[in-house]
């Protein structure tokens, strides 16, 4: 018999975060089909309101397609800087109240409230925190409370929009049983299709299939699916202050004042760790540049930025910081770049300016880098052939933020 550890985990999700922020800024948008994203026909939908979803619109859909489905939809350009700042405000509220929390994306949080029932009551405490966030931020938020992260996330999805739901310990399987298999986290169309072709449509049916058979069908993913279908998830809430940073440094063979060379190094390092960032499905909220002169004086400067994982945005910030730092016009022996304040999230959500072609370009670039190596595809104007690159001291990913 499998014994579930009796924990108390809350999952908070800011409902349709980008859309909700736009409605907060302009009350006239409430209750209307609203699209957040680029304004051109070749742009994509970054987020959409519940009213727009009724027309079959979803995020990452071409804006042109969305407008065919709902010609009277309203479009807002989107403000990633505003969304990022509000996300940080919400994080501060949760950090002040919660004993242990994990920021899993720009608008999602897990809170470990295990043991709180002895003193206050987990559900009562969580309700009060939700109400506090709503009052202070003027934004809707839903939560699910359960014995593990997976169940709490599914419960949150069932509570939306702007609701709350508790799954009592021991009732995890009965809660999941009638749901279609797509309701389980990480079960996409392809996996659901494979299961349905074998007659598996509900979580209850999935939970009753021998785990060995699921493994034969789906490989290691089959074991994970069996655990989910049976309400099992032992993954811990990872404290947000332990979120990792990613960085790299380059020590030059000869101290230099060559601006063209240093710019090339900035491009090379930024593209390298931005690629690693996207490989981890993360977004960065802070950029730091380090400079060491020939006299060994070391200076650093950092900048909080809207969450992103895009080369062109990160490189712009890196170059801006470098030019603010490099004010002595002395020989330089080392340059370092670091991305921190990392959160989970697909980099596409920050591409409000970009078209379908830009998104496809990033996907193609990452595919090539995955196949041949990150160093074989860089910006041509600044790239240095791999054989001529100086030896670099590379800080491996991940590394704890100090």
TrEMBL record:
Q: Where is the UmuC domain?
A: 9-188
Instruction: Kindly give the InterPro entries that the UniProt entry links to this protein.
Output: DNA/RNA_pol_sf, DNA_pol_Y-fam_lit_finger_sf, DNA_pol_Y-fam_little_finger, DNA_polymerase-Y, DNApol_IV, IMS_HHH_1, Rev_trsase/Diguanyl_cyclase, UmuC
UniProt GO cellular component terms: cytosol
Q: Name one GO molecular function term.
A: magnesium ion binding
Q: Where is this site: Substrate discrimination?
A: 18
Required cofactor(s): Mg(2+)
Can you state which reaction this protein catalyses?
DNA(n) + a 2'-deoxyribonucleoside 5'-triphosphate = DNA(n+1) + diphosphate
What are the positions of the active site?
Answer: 108
Q: Which UniProt keywords apply?
A: Cytoplasm, DNA damage, DNA repair, DNA replication, DNA-binding, DNA-directed DNA polymerase, Magnesium, Metal-binding, Mutator protein, Nucleotidyltransferase, Transferase
CDD domains according to UniProt? PolY_Pol_IV_kappa
The record lists Mg(2+) as bound by 13, 107
> What are the subcellular locations of this protein?
Cytoplasm
Cofactor: binding details = Binds 2 magnesium ions per subunit.
| EC primary class | transferase
According to its UniProt entry, one GO biological process term is: error-prone translesion synthesis
Q: What is its EC number?
A: 2.7.7.7
PROSITE patterns for the chain? UMUC
Quaternary context: Monomer.
Q: Which HAMAP family match?
A: DNApol_IV
Q: What PANTHER family has UniProt attached to this entry?
A: DNA POLYMERASE KAPPA (PTHR11076:SF33), DNA REPAIR POLYMERASE UMUC / TRANSFERASE FAMILY MEMBER (PTHR11076)
> What is the similarity comment for this entry?
Belongs to the DNA polymerase type-Y family.
Q: According to its UniProt entry, what is the function of this protein?
A: Poorly processive, error-prone DNA polymerase involved in untargeted mutagenesis. Copies undamaged DNA at stalled replication forks, which arise in vivo from mismatched or misaligned primer ends. These misaligned primers can be extended by PolIV. Exhibits no 3'-5' exonuclease (proofreading) activity. May be involved in translesional synthesis, in conjunction with the beta clamp from PolIII.
Protein's UniProt name: DNA polymerase IV
Q: Which gene encodes it?
A: dinB
């Amino acid at each position: 018999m499998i014994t579930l550890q009796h924990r108390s985990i809350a999952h908070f999700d800011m409902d349709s975060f980008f859309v909700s922020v736009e409605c907060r800024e302009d009350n006239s948008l409430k209750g209307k089909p609203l699209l957040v994203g680029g304004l051109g026909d070749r742009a994509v939908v970054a987020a959409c309101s519940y009213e727009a979803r009724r027309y079959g619109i979803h995020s990452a859909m071409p804006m042109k397609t969305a407008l065919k489905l709902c010609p009277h939809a309203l479009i807002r350009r989107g403000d990633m800087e505003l969304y990022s700042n509000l996300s940080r405000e919400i994080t501060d509220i949760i950090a002040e109240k919660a004993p242990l929390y994990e920021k899993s994306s720009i608008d999602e949080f897990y809170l470990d409230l295990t043991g709180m029932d002895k003193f206050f009551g987990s559900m009562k405490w969580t309700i009060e925190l939700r109400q506090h966030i709503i009052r202070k931020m003027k934004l809707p938020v839903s939560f699910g409370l359960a014995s593990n992260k997976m169940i709490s996330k599914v419960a949150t999805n069932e509570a939306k929009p702007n609701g709350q739901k508790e799954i009592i310990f021991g009732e995890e399987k009965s809660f999941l049983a009638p749901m279609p298999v797509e309701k389980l986290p990480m079960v996409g169309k392809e996996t659901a299709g494979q299961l349905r072709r074998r007659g598996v449509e509900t979580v209850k049916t999935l939970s009753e299939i021998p785990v060995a058979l699921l493994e034969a069908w789906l490989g290691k993913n089959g074991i994970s699916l069996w655990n989910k279908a049976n309400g099992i998830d032992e993954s811990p809430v990872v404290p947000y202050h332990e979120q990792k940073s990613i960085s790299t440094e380059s020590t030059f063979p000869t101290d230099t004042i060559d601006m063209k060379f240093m710019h090339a190094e900035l491009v090379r390092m930024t593209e390298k760790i931005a690629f690693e960032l996207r490989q981890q499905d993360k977004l960065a909220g802070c950029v730091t540049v380090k400079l060491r002169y020939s006299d060994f004086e070391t200076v650093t400067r950092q900048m909080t930025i809207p969450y992103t994982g895009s080369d062109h945005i990160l490189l712009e910030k890196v170059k801006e910081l470098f030019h603010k730092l490099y004010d002595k016009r002395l020989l330089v022996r080392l340059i370092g770049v670091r991305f921190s304040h990392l959160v989970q999230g697909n980099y596409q959500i920050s591409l409000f300016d970009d078209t379908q072609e830009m998104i496809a370009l990033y996907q193609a670039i990452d595919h090539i880098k995955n196949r041949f190596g990150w160093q074989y595809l860089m910006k041509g104007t600044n790239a240095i052939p791999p054989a001529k690159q100086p030896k670099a001291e590379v800080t491996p990913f991940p590394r704890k933020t100090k």
